[in-house]
Amino acid sequence: MCFKKKDPKRIYFLSLEYLMGRALSNSITNLGIRDQYADALSQLGFDLEVLAEQEGDAALGNGGLARLSACQMDSLATLDYPAWGYGLRYQYGLFRQVILDGYQHEQPDYWLNYGNPWEIERIHMAYPVKFYGTVEEEDFNGEKRKVWVPNETVEAVAYDNPIPGYGTRNTITLRLWAAKPSDKNDMEAYNTGDYINAVVNRQRAETISSVLYPDDRTYQGKEIRLKQQYFFVSASMQDIIRRFKVTHDNIDEFPEKVALQLNDTHPSLAIVEVVRLLVDEENLSWSRAWDIVCQIFSFTTHTVLPEGLEKIPVDLLESLLPRHLQIIYEINHNFIEELKKRIGLDYDRLSKMSIIEEGAVKNIRMANLSVVCSHSVNGVSKVHGELLKTRVFKDFYDLWPHKFHYKTNGATQRRWIVVSNPSLCALISKWLATEAWIRDMDLLSGLQEYATNADLHREWKMVRKVNKMRLAEYIEAMTGVKVSIDAMFDVQIKRIHEYKRQFLNILGIIHRYDCIKNMEKNDRRNVVPRVCIIGGKAAPGYEIAKKIIKLCHAVAEKINNDPDIGDLLKLVFIPDYSVSVAELVIPGADLSQHISTAGHEASGTSSMKFLMNGCLLLATEDGSTIEIIEEIGADNMFLFGAKSHEVPVLREKGPALKVPLQFARVVRMIRNGYFGFEDYFESLCDSVEVGNDFYLLGADFESYLEAQAAADKAFVDDKKWTQMSILSTAGSGRFSSDRTIEEYAANAWGIEPCRCPF
Ligand code: NBY
Fold it and tell me: Which parts form a coiled-coil structure per UniProt (predicted)?
């Protein structure tokens, strides 16, 4: 309401993925009504905590990118920015992971089964989205114009999800589109008597928003995925232009009122759709339309690898969106002409920078399109920003250095401390004598002065102990394994990927097991007990990742049932990792692992959540870890492994690379069937053999074990550990998504807060 009245410039956040998790606890916390709500419920005979657990997660995304969108929505609302989120209302979210005999199976997540009480269906807020057909040339008063004659129409219906801010009356909206059959199509079919086809087509329309693609690595060039992308951006852009026109009749003012954020390349057809709407529907000249487009888009990429960048086969686009292909060609033509003026006829460079990739299959390079058409191109950490300039988009950086920036990711302390760790939240507020840190996380640095205070230590340890008890209960319920809360809880939870190196973690665990087995009984008394906790989903088609999950179970089976080992070492795999599972696991973790091969993790955000909860990090110098080191100091973490500039050098060595004997030994144990299933694990073992070990598990193994030994040593020094834990929380202020959003607002979007009066 307040935005409508003041009509500020708005930010429209476009993302194909949001991992919102549960809404109840978060909403009542942000609204400041948690206590009253709990009281009211108890009068009705319900317990808030029990009730809140009943809610299922909204899991409309894969991993870090999707949870980042959710954290940023929370920050946008809390900081009073005039913002809208746009996305797709998938009927099936990210698959449920079911483990049978240690293997991952995927089951559909029909999250709308019992309805979704949070969404508001806006049946009248609907737009037609068109596909296929041809482009004709028509004469308008002597002027030739392109006219797209599509032959399929689907209706996009809005579902609004409120996002309340904390400590403000502002609530913003996440508008998710659902695909519905268009009545217009039906009428035509009924008139031609094609009743059966009409019904079949109705069903087909709905498939567009039916399922989230569960792959977080590769773009597969599938038609439905492309339809999803276009369906989403077309509906969003129609809605945004409609809202603009309510109060403005001069379309040239559009950039003064509208900023659009592209969350990776997935929504970047929005660029082409805006050109189409302005030129074909609003009758603007190309140059006027282009002038507008160049001012409104900011683009953030979340990947490091050039092969992670999305490409759309030209043939596919031509059949689905023929007019859009023409527009892309025109954008590219103008760009290449401009480029020739700047760099001359350097064909190698021209072809690398072209939006069109020539070759056996012609592709549209969505990243190039996004860079060419955005005024701001962002990485997600300092080192990622550098990589964009020096590797991924080097040629573009040389051309347009002013476009390139980075905004280090963050996480919202509202969900990741206040809601998921209420006792730590209360403790922090008590010692800082204020709750202001919930809106200004830099204030956490005030804890530093109490880092050695004995009273704080006692209370801090008590909070952590209760969280560990809760986690231990959950582990037993999910896996049947009883764990001791006196052991160090060592956690790695994230999507399963070779570059994230869960395999390295498991090899380290095998080594630990092997060492304990080979020890004299007396020496075992010196072993620091550990509970190793691993969780995460593998993309359904990612074979090696699935083998890592099976290996984890096979090793766990052996270790957990070995009477020699007892409580000295346990390994558990937490099934069906999700936002809600993370909320339970993170507060109970002593140590967490962020061990990607240096140069591969664009940022990483779970590390920030562990850090704010006082968990120590064992990590490589990759992504945002580099900035965490700057904040809390290397002394308060366990760092190891090759640095990113050393990685290519090590790879270069190939078969001449020196690998420690212990590494060869643990891999051999798997190969020799010590944990069973040796045939199944063969290709996994092959992937880390010398000469083949792309992610450098062998090269980093020794220093990994050293970092683990340092963690053991620190853990037995109770005072030191607690101090490091307090300093971790105290140093986490920079990693609030509030800071990230302030940076985007000031440096990319040009927007100001707009606060509703109380
Ligand atoms: O984005 C992650 C990065 O790996 C991580 O380092 C970073 O912290 C995080 C937030 O910036 N990327 C990610 O989660 N990517 C995806 O989930 C994803 C999803 C879909 C597709 C590609 C990647 N896709 O091609 O459809």
Answer: none
Q: What is the domain count for the chain?
A: 2
68 lines ligand 1 (CB under 6 A): yes
Q: Is residue 217 part of a domain?
A: yes
My answer on whether 173 and 28 are in the same domain is yes
Q: Which domain holds residue 728?
A: 413-735
CA distance 502 to 267: 31
Q: Say if ligand 1 is within 6 A of residue 297 CB.
A: no
Residues 327 and 276: beta-carbon distance below 8 Å: yes
- Does 417 lie in the same domain as 360? no
Catalytic residue among 10, 22, 324, 494: 494
Question: What's the CA gap between 653 and 691, in Å, rounded?
Answer: 8
Q: Active-site residue among 22, 500, 546, 600?
A: 500
**Dihedral angle at the C-alpha atoms of 664, 670, 671, 675, nearest 10 degrees?**
160
81 and 104 fall within a common domain: yes
Position in ligand 1 atom list of the atom nearest CA 384: 6
Q: Which ipTM was obtained for this model?
A: 0.99
Q: Ligand 1 within 6 A of 389 CB?
A: no
Catalytic residue (choose from 495, 497, 570, 600): 495
* Whether 454 and 330 share a structural domain: no
588-633, pLDDT tens digit by residue? 999 999 999 999 999 999 999 999 999 999 999 999 999 999 999 9
Asked if residue 579 lies in contact with residue 539, where contact means CB atoms within 8 angstroms, the answer is no
Whether 643 is catalytic: no
Verify that 306 and 425 share a domain, yes or no: no
Closest CA relative to residue 613, chosen from 637, 589, 639: 589
Q: Are residues 428 and 354 in the same domain?
A: no
Place of tokens 């220093």: 703
**Cβ-contact 464, 505 below 8 angstroms:** no
- For the question of whether the overall pTM of this predicted structure is more than 0.90, the answer is yes
Give the pairing of strands 404-406 and 488-493: unpaired
For the stretch 711-737, pLDDT in tens is 999 999 999 999 999 999 999 999 999
Structure tokens given for 511: 């080594």
Q: Cα separation of 640 and 332, whole Å? A: 45
Q: Quick one: 349 and 440 in the same domain?
A: no
Over residues 663-674, the pLDDT tens digits come to 999 999 999 999
